[in-house]
Amino acid sequence: MSESRTPQPDAPEAEPAANSYVPPKWRTEPRFPDGPAPDPAGSHHERRIRSFQPRRSRVTTGQGEALKRLWGTWGLDIDGREVLDLDRLFGGLPVVLEIGFGMGEATAQMAAADPDTGILAVDVHTPGQGNLLALAERGGMTNVRVANGDAVILLREMLPPASLAGIRVYFPDPWPKARHHKRRLIQPEFLDLAATRMAPGAVLHCATDWEPYAEQMLEVLSAHPLFENTQEDGGFAPRPDFRPLTRFEGQGLDKGHVVHDLLFRRVENA
Ligand SMILES: C[S@@+](CC[C@H](N)C(=O)[O-])C[C@H]1O[C@@H](n2cnc3c(N)ncnc32)[C@H](O)[C@@H]1O
């Protein structure tokens, strides 16, 4: 008699493969009702070198309260499921993406100083998300949205082509060890992606206090065919007035580091 291929109703469930990944609870269970998702789709499960280290950091009571109260209105999970309607989200303002806002103090200052620009601020750092939401609420700002997850997924899956008026990357993780250099955000592949989402004329503004990373940024940006240096001498830019001192920058300056700004314009497609 040939073996039946019909599954038996009381057949035991298949055991998960020995090597299947079971994420720890803190990556899958919500920490704040209606707050940011613990593991927005795509950011942690994708087999890709990431520019950040997932970590569970302590959230203060005030930050937690802000996440619970404000996430539904001003927060955005990077789940990779929909292309965002930036006009709807920002009421038609030109939109600048800030990648890695940390605790968000500088972001809030820039948003307050320029209410005619929308800031889409992305980070994976939960305390910072709560902090920025609280700062924006306190300042009565309506031009900031806080996104939770990996900026690469946001750019690749959720932003339309030529939709951004600028990108800011202030003090990205320097990954100083040679074996970690591949984790640095500013690489040719990232620039390829960023260029597709930036409108012609939009500016990519990077700043770092890590000299070797500054040199790498200058090299890869100068070599990219879709970016041109705003500096005629092809070098670093003076710090623009609109960029406030950031928390990470302050720590670098305390250690005697030198800060470099880079401002590169997205050129028209050839
Ligand atoms: C060194 S901190 C700098 C924070 C802030 N800009 C400052 O200057 O104080 C870099 C931040 O970038 C975030 N980050 C790194 N890669 C990211 C990515 N791919 N998507 C979203 N955030 C990222 C990290 O979580 C971290 O908060």
UniProtKB/TrEMBL annotation:
Domain of life: Bacteria
Gene3D superfamilies for this protein: Vaccinia Virus protein VP39
SUPFAM superfamilies recorded: S-adenosyl-L-methionine-dependent methyltransferases
Stretches of the chain forming a coiled coil according to its record: none
Record InterPro entries: SAM-dependent_MTases_sf (IPR029063), tRNA_(Gua-N-7)_MeTrfase_Trmb (IPR003358), tRNA_methyltr_TrmB_bact (IPR055361)
Function field: Catalyzes the formation of N(7)-methylguanine at position 46 (m7G46) in tRNA.
Pathway where it operates: tRNA modification; N(7)-methylguanine-tRNA biosynthesis
Reactions that this protein is recorded to catalyse: guanosine(46) in tRNA + S-adenosyl-L-methionine = N(7)-methylguanosine(46) in tRNA + S-adenosyl-L-homocysteine
Species of the source: Streptomyces toxytricini (Actinomyces toxytricini)
Record's compositionally biased regions (Basic residues): 45-58
Family: Belongs to the class I-like SAM-binding methyltransferase superfamily. TrmB family.
Protein known as: tRNA (guanine-N(7)-)-methyltransferase
Enzyme class: transferase
Name of the encoding gene: trmB
Binding site for S-adenosyl-L-methionine: E98, D123, D150, D173
